[in-house]
Amino acid sequence: MLQVDLQGGFGEKGRTSVAVCDGETRIMLDAGIKVGATGDEYYPQLSRPTGEIDALFISHAHEDHIGALCRLARMGYAGPIYMTEETRAEMPATLAQYADPEELRRYPPKDEQIRLFRPGDTLQVGALSVETGASGHVVGGVWFAVRTGGHCVVYAADMVPRSTVFRMEPLPACDLLILDASYGGDPVPGAERARGIAAWVARHSGGCLLPTPLSGRSLELMAAIDTPFAIAAGMREPLAAQIGAGDALRAGLAGKLAEKLAAAREWSEGEPLPDCPLLVHDGMGVAGPARPAIAAADAAGYPILLSGHLPKGSPGALLAEAGRADWIRMPTHPTLPENVALWEELGRPATLGHSCDAAVLGELHEHIPALETGFRTGQTYLIGKEAVHAHSDIQR
Questions:
Q1: Which residues form the Metallo-beta-lactamase domain (predicted)?
Q2: Boundary of a domain, candidates 327, 342, 371
Q3: Which of 28, 103, 288, 350 would you label with 204, given CA atoms 20 to 30 Å apart?
Q4: What is the pLDDT of residues 63-79, one digit of tens each?
């Protein structure tokens, strides 16, 4: 039997986290934070004390999957932390923006805890076998498949089956699929959205602001737009590192992206906004150079295009609600046809959806009847017996 504890991201967007246990060994998959939340709701609801976690696996370095690392250390977790080299490289910048500053100072992840692996590796913790594969979301981003005793749960993390930039490796057959449901019933193909963004940027090529996460969507935007652009100071080296991980990209793209990056101008906070598109991180305007850049652009009437998730109350959300910024979704999660196709290919297994609210789950259930819509953060799913709703103990 496998016990799957839903520790964050179920019936909500953010603090994504899952724990899997076979009765002997317990592993944790991701430890994110929830932007816009406060107090305990900012962090995962741990189903057991940190001393009972045998290993922690991180899918990628976006804040809703890695931002709670310092909190776990403060709570006493001192075990191994498995991640790819690219995730480790991006981790410090993410924690600097989203971890509690005092916790980051006192409880940073320790080098001796970190265990590196490559997408495609299979890792062993006790009797649990953990398969990994490239997720198509960011360079170094992975999905996890946990197996034991003839049972398997696949946690897709964030993925993009048909990214124009990143490769995604096929998911294995499983008893339970934990699907990236961020976009719910959105049927619009990614290529169509990318064309819409390219057209918007072309209309504002004399100057516009494009807030974006440092990894993943930045390369998607660079691939989509054809006009010369600028980037915020500090972005060049991380972007070059992502482009340099050539095996993570689709064939023929690395050279084209490298040429675009080499030609990009640099912009620093306090300088006049450039007369060309400007990429700044993060995508919500909550942290990083995007926060002052959005304020400056709004004050100057400089066009702003937002292209991802906007938590309620974030600077980006407030501007979009007021009509002072445009929004076109850049597909960095699966669209409806992609999720349906994945579910069909895997033999229509039992399915949970993460990273969305109840309404979005309802939309997706109309197309994936095996999707369970009632499970929420703090509950447990059992594989090997009839699935039941069970509230987990919350550890603070």
A1: 14-200
A2: 327
A3: 288
A4: 999 999 999 999 999 99
Residue 194 lies in a domain: yes
Contacts of 105 (CB under 8 A, 6+ apart): none
In the chain, the number of structural domains is 2
What Å distances lie between residue 6 and 1, 164, 169, 211, 303, CA to CA?
Answer: 16, 31, 25, 31, 40
Lookup: tokens for 191? 């290529």
* Domain span at 291: 190-327
Residue type, 219: L
Q: Is 207 helix (H, G, I), strand (E, B) or coil?
A: coil
Q: Which of 308, 327, 346 is the last residue of a domain?
A: 327
**Cβ neighbours of residue 292 closer than 8 Å, sequence gap 6 or more:** 269
- Nearest C-alpha neighbor of 227 from the set 297, 277, 164: 277
d(CA 306, CA 197): 10
For the chain, the farthest-separated pair of C-alpha atoms sits apart, in whole angstroms, at 62
Give per-residue burial for 135-145: e unless 16+ CB within 10 Å, then b.
bbbbbbbbbbb
Residue 157: inside a domain: yes
Rounded to a whole number of angstroms, the distance between the first and last alpha carbons of the chain is 27
Residue 121: is its pLDDT beyond 90? yes
In this predicted structure, what is the pLDDT of residue 301? Answer: 95
Measure the CA–CA gap between 84 and 108, rounded to whole angstroms. Answer: 18
Share of the chain above pLDDT 90, in %: 84
Considering the entire predicted model, what is its pTM? 0.91
Report in angstroms the alpha-carbon separations of 66 from 31, 52, 126, 345, 392.
5, 19, 23, 29, 21
Residue 74, domain CATH: 3.60.15.10
Instruction: Return the structure tokens found at 181.
Output: 């449901």
DSSP 355: S
Assess whether 164 and 259 both reside in one domain: no
Angle at 308 between CA 172 and CA 332, to 5 degrees: 25
315 and 357 fall within a common domain:
no
Q: Are residues 239 and 143 in the same domain?
A: no
